[in-house]
Amino acid sequence: MKKLIAMLLALTMIFALCACGQSSAPAAAPAAEPAAAPAAEPAAAPAEEKGPSGTLTVYSPHDSDPLNAGVAAFEAAYPDVKVEVIADGTSNLVNKIGAEAANPIADVLWGGGADTLAAYKQYFQPYKPSCIDLIDSSLYDPEYYWIGESPLPMVFIANTDMIPEADIPTTWAALADFDTAKYGKIAIADPTSSGSAFTQLCTMLFLFGEEADGYAGGWDFVGKVIDKLEVKNSSSLAHKDVYNKENAVGITLEKAAIKYTEDFMKVIYPTDGTSAVPDGVAIVKNCPNPELAELFEEFVLGYDCQVAQNADWGRRPIRSDVTPVGLCPLSDVTLMNYNFDYAANNAPEIKEMWQDTLVG
What confidence tier does 360 reach under pLDDT thresholds 50, 70, 90? Predict the structure, then answer.
């Protein structure tokens, strides 16, 4: 009996221990932390905008130094544009452009007298540059077929060792009263062979005449002064012979006259008006690369190029906001209305009329 009781007590204790062990709930597992949101990928950098590119063909009669400098500056500004240059005389280049009209090779003509460009403007296409308000309206085509890029004013040059300053003519009109008995004849180149002298002749025609009657008033004026002129067989003699005291007064280009820095050599800008036929820039009609051609025209007319071409090569800037080094501002020069189209389209007749007037 005692054994049975002891066995029962032992079983009771075992059951109690099991019950105690099962009464404790297992510890709750720590709550899982919310998953972190995936990191946002950095925004892609905007693609760098590509500048102008391609090959631009430039025809130019300019001297090699300013030409090469201008092209190098353009390529530095637009490194993805390659410029191919064809250099030759103005007449050869415009004739080449005309011959290639059905399949143009050139994009731009940079240089050449504007009266020549006017004669060939059917081979150009108009473009109005952004700086047009800074260019005198007498120095570009009214329909923008060509734009002047460096004006060349016509001036008088005098040697004060031969003529007192008070007697130096300061207007074209005063040439008609020049005292040749006292001071000798006025030097001028031959308009039939010299481009600058042809411009000087047309300057007198346009200043004193009207297109409506074929510039009859201008021819009347030429008739009054022609006996006072000594016609030279070279453009350079119109100023060199003044320096050498062969003539007291000459008619020449500004860029030639300003090379004489001696005190006895005086440069006169006629106050009744003078021409400043510029070298021009024009875009070839139906050219292969019109956008690059426009870019190039904007560049050569731009402030930086105009400053550099003047400072480095003595070329007169066309822009009114560029003060020329070694030259008076163009705004100080009285400019007359030069009829580029008439000069270009009537050159043979004008030269023949000159010859007839010269021989009387």
Answer: confident
- Are 318 and 306 in contact by the 8 Å Cβ rule? The answer is yes
Segment 1-7 long-range contacts (CB within 8 Å, at least 24 positions apart) = none
Question: Which of 329, 330, 300, 325 has the alpha carbon at shortest distance from 315?
Answer: 325
Quote the tokens at residue 156. 């008088």
Residue 262 in this model has a pLDDT that exceeds 50: yes
Spell out the alpha helix ranges (H) of the chain: 2-23, 64-77, 90-99, 114-119, 180-183, 195-208, 216-225, 237-243, 254-257, 290-300, 303-313, 340-345, 347-359
- Contact of 94 with 124, CB cutoff 8 Å: no
The pair of three-digit structure tokens given for residue 196, joined into one six-digit string: 């600058």
CA separation for the pair 309, 63 (Å, rounded): 12
Rounded to the nearest angstrom, the gap between the alpha carbon of residue 241 and the centroid of all alpha carbons in its chain is 33
User: 282: closest CA among 12, 27, 58, 43?
Assistant: 58
What's residue 244's pLDDT?
98
Q: Match domain 154-275+349-359 to its CATH number in 3.30.450.40, 3.65.10.10, 3.40.190.10, 3.40.50.2000.
A: 3.40.190.10
The CATH number that domain 54-152+277-327 falls under is: 3.40.190.10
Distance CA 29, CA 269 (A): 103
